[in-house]
Amino acid sequence: MRGRTVKLVKMGAMVAISVALVYLIHFPIFPAVAFLEYDPADIPILIGTFAFGPLAGLALTVVTSVIQGLTVSSGSGLYGILMHVIATGVLVIVSGSIYGRKKTKNMAVVSLLCGMAAMAVVMMGANIVITPLFMGVSAEAVWSLMPFIVGFNLIKAGINGGVTFILYKRIANFLRR
Q1: How far apart are the first and last CA of the chain?
Q2: Which of 10, 38, 103, 162 is the 20 to 30 A CA-CA neighbour of 133?
Q3: Distance between CA atoms of 128 and 153, rounded to whole angstroms?
């Protein structure tokens, strides 16, 4: 029982750090599509995923997305929450599932690259289907922005994955205690 409580507290801390990071750091990567903002929220989520597994990572994603969507990113509303859950959910499920099989540095790189690619591909479909429903734009208009959308997702996941790779081993022992 104590072990589960400690794990929940650590996961709660990861959520708090994630939300604080979004509040403190967010900026557009491509000025032409300034609504696509980079934020480092996925770093604590990925660290939690590597420490506790892909289902824990998905739980961190959902909780962080809802809190973030109701507070620091409230302007994006349900659309922002949904897109964050999908994007980061794919990233953590793929990365966490691969890394969980063999926890080595090489496997961490492979898992993060696979997660990054999966996130970019899934978000192409999610943007084509979901964005028109929420934003009142045509699928063709969204498709015309696809190079930016794919680039954004690859850059965001790449930066967050790279930082996670650098930080994880330094933090892992604390999280596993």
Answers
A1: 15
A2: 38
A3: 14
Instruction: Give the angle 134-132-146 at the CA atoms, nearest 5°.
Output: 120
pLDDT band at 91 (very low <50, low <70, confident <90, very high): very high
At 15, list the tokens: 């959520």
User: Six-digit token pair at 53?
Assistant: 């597994």
Radius of gyration of the chain from its Cα atoms, rounded to whole angstroms: 16
Task: Check: CB of residue 147 under 8 Å from CB of residue 169.
Answer: no
Tell me the whole-structure pTM to 2 decimals.
0.95
H-type alpha helices, 30-137: 42-52, 54-70, 77-101, 105-135
Amino acid (1-letter code) at residue 5: T
- The structure tokens listed for 67 are 């809190």
Both tokens of 50, joined, read 């590597």
Distance, CA of 130 to CA of 87 (rounded, Å): 12
The string over 37-54, giving b where at least 16 C-beta atoms fall within 10 Å of a residue's C-beta and e elsewhere, is: bbbbbbbbbbbbbbbbbb
